[in-house]
Design brief:
The chain is of the alpha/beta class. It has 15 helices and 17 strands. Strand 12 and strand 13 form a beta hairpin. It starts with a strand and ends with a strand.
């Protein structure tokens, strides 16, 4: 079957030259005088390819191209732009809009023929129209208007995602802002983002209505199951939105959309209220936002890592000395202002030098990481912990008097002593730690951070002097 080519050009002379060139090469050629007429013929006649000019009355080549590439009946139809405009912006926009080739009118006839043959050969001839073709130019213009509106909506959503998220330096805040925008176009009681990094899995769930705790937990498990999670990775989870509802709900399954992140895996999960409605009205919009959402989350991850490098210890991922001391001053000021109790715990690992001398510094690093993990899992999320020195750790306990802090220190001491720590060489070991505890009300007013830590340090020295692996007072 002879391939039929549609040539769209408002110049009779140019159109005749192109038709003659293609017919000599063995193609059947049909013609149109402007973009609107060309759109009607393309959707009625379904040619094997379209060759179009850019500047034409009624509808130009760019609008024709956008219409053909957006309509399911013609989006796989090869389009060649043949124009007198050789400027770089015209070429860029033509190809970006969806043209398969861009030639200028100083072309060699063989170049046009070869380009059309190549595109026709690789075109998918099995595509079927998704609906009735337009009845005339006015309906074509209406389709163009609808497509422009759809493009404007997509661009507005993308810009909103970027505007709200790019200035954010914290990952959960970026997730919350972006999911808030997506919630405006996706009728979904729950939206979630999961990101997997070597040592941390970030999980953010945003609720737009009260949901039973069981539903939220199932969603969280499903999102974690959709991304790779390294053994021992810490789950950094946050849930925002209305409080949970009572009972259970019969809701549809989550819809998963992979995020094109840089150097990590991520997933957007949507719990649609009505899956059929979501498929028709929202899925394509949400899917088009994935690259922009990924850019925002990558940027937030990078900013957060840069902040952590300045405030966190690289080995244990706890606050470093400066940062934990700054937090102590903040918490102490708040404690004094509201007359609330505050205590600190200073911890030192027992005989840590022996670990380095016997098993090497890699083993010492493993011990410090394991102890830091024990502390994180034992303490409250509101407690502040940092690596204060080589093998020293400082814990700041808000709303805790001396007795409450002493009980926390005992739990930390027990957690460290009971933990078997695997070493890089394959062995494992246990280690103990000594603790000094001090409360704000024990130091002279006005209480100072250095005085509070100094008191805890004196008591830590007492714990070391009385046999180690104990808490003082």
């Amino acid at each position: 079957m002879t391939p039929r080519i549609l040539v769209v050009d408002d110049s009779d002379f140019t159109r005749t030259l192109i038709v003659r060139t293609l017919e000599r090469a063995g193609f059947e050629v049909i013609t149109a005088r402007d973009g609107a007429e060309g759109a009607v013929m393309a959707l009625h006649e379904r040619p094997a390819a379209v060759v179009t000019d850019l500047e034409m009355p009624v509808m130009d080549g760019y609008q024709l191209l956008r219409l053909l590439k957006s309509d399911p009946a013609s989006r796989h139809l090869p389009v060649v732009i043949l124009t007198s405009h050789g400027e770089a912006p015209s070429r860029f926009w033509g190809l970006h809009t969806g043209a398969d080739a861009y030639l200028t009118k100083d072309y060699e006839s063989g170049e046009l023929v070869e380009t059309v043959r190549r595109l026709v050969a690789r075109a998918d001839a099995a595509i079927q129209p998704a609906g009735p073709p337009p009845s005339g130019p006015m309906e074509v213009l209406a389709r163009v208007a609808r497509q422009l509106d759809a493009n404007l909506l997509a661009v507005t959503l993308a810009n909103t995602i970027l505007e709200h998220g790019m200035g954010v330096g914290e990952l959960h805040e970026a997730c919350e802002r972006c999911l808030g925008t997506i919630a405006e176009v996706a009728d979904a009681p729950l939206l979630a983002v999961g990101l997997s990094e070597p040592e941390t899995v970030h999980l953010h769930l945003r609720l737009s209505q009260p949901l039973p705790l069981k539903v939220v937990e199932r969603a969280a498990s499903a999102v974690l199951g959709s991304i790779p999670v390294n053994p021992g990775a810490v789950v950094d989870a946050q849930v925002t939105g209305p409080r949970e509802a009572e009972g259970d709900l019969d809701l549809p399954d989550l819809e998963f959309m992979p995020l094109p992140l840089t150097s990590t895996s991520g997933m957007l999960a949507v719990l649609p209220r009505n899956p059929q409605q979501f498929e028709v009205a929202s899925r394509h919009l949400v899917h088009g936002l994935l690259p922009h959402l990924a850019v925002v989350l990558d940027n937030a991850r990078l900013n957060q890592k840069l902040q952590e490098l300045s405030s966190h210890d690289g080995l244990t991922r706890l606050l470093n000395h400066r940062a934990v001391h700054d937090r102590l001053r903040e918490e102490l000021s708040r404690s004094i202002r509201f007359d609330r109790p505050l205590s600190v715990i200073l911890c030192d690992l027992d005989h840590f030098k022996r670990v380095n001398d016997t098993w090497g510094h890699l083993a010492g690093d493993a011990v410090l990481r394991a102890v830091a993990t024990s502390f994180r899992t034992t303490l409250r999320t509101s407690d502040v912990i940092g690596r204060y020195g080589g093998e020293e750790f400082l814990v700041v306990l808000g709303d805790s008097d001396l007795e409450a802090a002493r009980q926390v220190a005992e739990r930390l001491r027990s957690a460290v002593a009971q933990r078997r720590i695997p070493l890089p060489a394959g062995d494992d070991l246990t280690i103990t730690a000594s603790f000094g505890v001090a409360s704000r009300h024990e130091v002279p007013a006005p209480a100072q951070a250095d005085a509070l830590v100094s008191l805890a340090d004196n008591r830590l020295y007492q714990a070391k002097a009385t046999g180690r692996n104990c808490v003082r007072p």
